[in-house]
TrEMBL record:
The keyword Oxidoreductase applies. It comes from Pediococcus inopinatus. Belongs to the short-chain dehydrogenases/reductases (SDR) family. This is SDR family NAD(P)-dependent oxidoreductase. It holds the Pfam family adh_short. Keywords: Oxidoreductase. The keyword Oxidoreductase applies.
Length: 240
């Protein structure tokens, strides 16, 4: 059986790193691990027997996306699973949030995911098979104060993913949404910008932001268990 090729964004930390580590140990899997800084992917070197490729990728840069897809196909000939994991957060009240900062978050969380997905669909349609795994969040289902723009980005991921799933169903392509909450990743730490309220009417929400910052890496959720869950999902069929 030919190896299946997994292409994952954002593998330097968090869910992406845990999933990449798991897949690197598996037989019959080619792994393309990406990050803005490939030096942070050295943890994969000990598993590499020619089935792992580490590539530089900033999902906000279409030229880099195009190059990653090109290099993946050149090296392995197929893209069987795309995992859109790269993402960032932003804490701040709606009124006090910095527009440029939240726009950049949308560029990563939404447009990065969109551009990555569009870049592989022609290949998957030609193959008549493929799985697209989009990391959303509980924040794509429920909303909390100080996270309005983050929620907006994840609600967008939910809606886009559900529509894509219906459009590609007859092409043998499946779409999977992952909606985690409270996992020990960098999301509430360095991967989220925080703007503490300065307007008196919003002071009540300051502690919510502080508590999330202090609780980073102490959450109940185990990212290694999440990686196993994604890998073993029945949705992936023969790709597991």
């Amino acid at each position: 059986m030919a190896n299946k090729t997994w292409l994952i964004t954002g593998t330097s930390t968090g869910f992406g790193r845990n999933l990449a580590t798991l897949l690197a140990k598996k037989p019959n899997i080619n792994l393309v691990a990406t990050a803005r800084n490939v030096d942070k992917l050295a943890y994969l070197d000990k598993f590499n027997q020619g089935q792992i490729k580490k590539l530089t990728l900033d999902v906000t840069k279409p030229a880099e996306i195009e190059e990653v897809v090109k290099q993946t196909l050149k090296s392995f000939g197929s893209i069987d699973v795309l995992v859109n994991n790269a993402g960032i957060g932003y804490f701040g009240t709606f009124e006090e949030s910095n527009r440029d900062a939240v726009k950049y978050m949308f560029d990563v969380n939404v447009w990065g995911l969109v551009d990555m997905t569009r870049s592989v669909l022609a290949t998957m349609r030609k193959q008549k098979s493929g799985v697209i795994v989009n990391f959303s969040s509980i924040g794509g289902l429920f909303s909390f104060p100080t996270l309005s723009f983050y929620h907006g980005s994840k609600y967008a991921v939910e809606g886009i993913s559900e529509a894509i799933a219906k459009e590609v169903a007859n092409s043998g392509i499946k779409v999977m949404l992952v909606e985690p909450s409270g996992f020990r990743t960098d999301w509430a730490g360095r991967s989220s910008e925080k703007v503490l309220p300065e307007i008196k009417d919003y002071e009540q929400f300051k502690q919510f932001i502080v508590a999330n910052t202090e609780g980073a890496h102490h959450e109940a959720g185990d990212p290694e268990a999440a990686a196993v869950f994604v890998h073993k999902q029945r949705t992936l069929g023969s790709l597991n």
